[in-house]
C-alpha cells in the first residue's frame, strides 16, 4: 500500500466503450463481473493501492446514469469526478486531464481492465516518480505474422515485441504538455502521445492477468482469474 504523495495522485479511468462486440445493450464497463460492475474493480484497485487518490472517471454523456450502479458498491467515501468523454480516446483522456495538475502523478487506465493488482499500481507509481513515466507491457507469446500483400506475409520476431497495458503513468509535468499537441492518428495510447512529444517512454513489467475485456469470453476468463486469486 502506498501512502506517500497520495494527495498528489490521480487516476484518470477511461470508460467510453460502447461494447458492441459484447452483444449487450448495457455498456461493457457496467456489465457484472462476479456480482459487481466491471468498472468497480478498477476504481477499487486504485483506492486500495494509493489511499487518498483522486479518481477522474471519463464517460460518454449517455452513460452518466450508469455511474450510480458502480458507486453504490462503495460503502466509504470516494473522491471521484465524472467528466464527459470525447470523440476519440485522445479527446477523452484530454478532457479527464483538465481535472489534474502538473504536480500530480497521473495514472491513465482502461476501465475494462478490472484485474490490475495493487502491486502493479505501486510499481508504476514508483517508476513514474523516478523516470517521468511508466508503461506496463507483457511479452508477446503467440507467433506473429506481418501481412505484406494480398497473399503474402512474413514472420515477425516476437522476442522484440511487447503488448502494452494500462495504467500508463506519468508525472503531470510530462503528460499535460504532451497533450497540448494536435491529434494524430498514430496516437493509440498515452505513451504514443508522450513519445511524439520527444520524451522517451520507460517500460515496466505488466501482468498477464491484467486483461482488457472486449468479448463475452473475456468476462468468463476474468471471472475465473478473479476467483482463483481470491482463493489464494
Description:
30% of the residues lie in helices and 22% in strands. The protein has 232 residues and is an alpha/beta fold. The chain has a single domain (6-231), classed as Alpha-Beta Complex (Spore Coat Polysaccharide Biosynthesis Protein SpsA, Chain A). Strands 1, 4, 5, 6, 7, 10, 11 and 12 form an 8-stranded mixed β-sheet that branches. Strands 2-3 form a two-stranded antiparallel ribbon. A two-stranded antiparallel ribbon has the order 8-9. A hairpin with a 5-residue loop joins strand 8 (144-147) and strand 9 (153-156). Helix 1 (38-49) crosses helix 4 (118-131).
CATH homologous superfamily caption: Spore Coat Polysaccharide Biosynthesis Protein SpsA, Chain A
As a whole number of angstroms, the C-alpha radius of gyration is 18 Å
Number of domains: 1
The SS-based structural class is: alpha/beta
CATH class wording:
Alpha Beta
User: How can the largest sheet be summarized?
Assistant: 8 strands, mixed
Q: Which terms would index this structure?
A:
alpha/beta, 232 residues, single chain, Spore Coat Polysaccharide Biosynthesis Protein SpsA, Chain A, 22% strand, 7 helices
SSE topology sketch:
Layout: E1 9-14, E2 32-33, E3 36-37, H1 38-49, E4 54-59, H2 67-71, E5 80-84, H3 89-97, E6 105-110, H4 118-131, E7 133-139, E8 144-147, E9 153-156, E10 162-164, E11 168-171, H5 172-178, H6 190-196, E12 203-205, H7 216-231
Parallel strand pairs: 1-4, 1-6, 4-5, 7-12
Antiparallel strand pairs: 2-3, 6-11, 7-10, 7-11, 8-9
Amino acid at each position: 500500500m502506498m501512502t506517500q504523495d497520495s494527495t498528489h495522485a490521480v487516476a484518470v479511468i477511461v470508460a467510453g466503450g460502447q461494447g458492441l462486440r459484447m452483444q449487450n445493450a448495457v455498456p461493457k464497463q457496467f456489465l457484472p463481473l462476479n456480482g459487481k460492475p466491471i468498472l468497480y474493480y478498477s476504481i477499487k484497485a486504485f483506492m486500495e493501492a494509493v489511499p487518498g487518490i483522486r479518481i477522474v472517471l471519463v464517460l460518454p454523456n449517455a452513460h452518466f446514469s450508469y455511474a450510480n450502479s458502480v458507486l453504490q458498491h462503495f460503502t466509504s467515501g470516494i473522491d471521484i469526478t465524472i467528466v464527459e468523454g470525447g470523440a476519440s480516446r485522445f479527446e477523452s483522456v484530454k478532457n479527464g486531464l483538465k481535472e489534474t495538475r502538473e504536480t500530480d502523478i497521473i495514472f491513465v487506465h482502461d476501465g475494462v481492465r478490472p484485474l490490475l493488482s495493487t502491486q502493479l499500481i505501486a510499481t508504476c507509481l514508483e517508476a513514474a516518480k523516478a523516470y517521468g513515466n511508466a508503461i506496463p507491457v507483457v511479452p508477446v507469446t503467440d507467433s506473429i505474422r506481418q501481412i505484406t500483400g494480398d497473399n503474402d506475409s512474413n514472420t515477425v520476431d516476437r522476442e522484440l515485441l511487447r503488448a502494452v497495458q494500462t495504467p500508463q503513468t506519468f508525472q503531470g509535468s510530462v503528460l499535460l504538455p504532451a497533450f497540448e499537441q494536435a491529434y494524430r492518428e498514430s496516437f493509440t495510447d498515452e505513451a504514443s502521445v508522450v513519445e511524439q512529444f520527444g520524451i522517451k517512454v520507460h517500460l515496466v513489467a505488466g501482468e498477464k492477468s491484467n486483461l482488457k475485456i472486449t468479448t463475452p469470453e473475456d468476462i468468463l476468463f476474468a471471472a475465473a482469474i478473479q476467483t482463483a486469486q481470491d482463493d489464494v
